Amino acid sequence: MARVVRAIPKGRVLSYSRVAVLAGIAGRARLVGKVLGRTGTGLPWWRVVRADRTLASPVAQLQARRLLREGVLLKGDRVMAAYVLPVGDSRLLRALGRSRPRPSRRAR
């Protein structure tokens, strides 16, 4: 999971559920949130948002500042859709050492 979060490029975001799928733990979005909440400053946690693109409370203001610093634009309390990393983004997959997304455990 940490490898996936580290691989999110600056100026882009992924949802908790997408991080879970890429980490091979599909359906465990809440686990991703718990781990990021406990990790502290070791990972770029601010690049992970809810599936509806809203920011995580209670750190939404800090998350917004960090995202804005990276050039991510918000509309109200949501990240604009253009900044969400597409499912098969080649930069992310390359950083993870894959040529295509790993199937979820449920699909196996």
Write the layout of secondary structure elements.
Blueprint: H1 2-7, E1 14-15, H2 16-22, H3 29-39, E2 48-49, H4 60-69, E3 74-75, E4 78-79, H5 90-95
Parallel strand pairs: 1-2
Antiparallel strand pairs: 3-4
Helix pairs in contact: 2-3
Distance between the termini: 19 Å
Query: How many β strands by DSSP?
Result: 4
Q: Which range best describes the helical content: under 10%, 10-25%, 25-40%, 40-55%, 55-70% or over 70%?
A: 25-40%
Can you write the helix and strand succession as a string? HEHHEHEEH
Mean pLDDT: 87
What class would the helix/strand composition place it in? mainly alpha
CATH superfamily: Winged helix-like DNA-binding domain superfamily/Winged helix DNA-binding domain
Discrete helix count: 5
Strand count, sense and barrel status of the largest sheet are: 2 strands, parallel
At CATH level 3, the topology is Arc Repressor Mutant, subunit A
- The CATH class turns out to be Mainly Alpha
Major sheet strand order: 1-2
Give the low-confidence spans: none
Label the CATH architecture.
Orthogonal Bundle
Tally of distinct domains = 1
Strand percentage: 5-15%
Shape: globular
Q: Which value, in Å, is the CA radius of gyration?
A: 13 Å
Quaternary structure classification: single chain
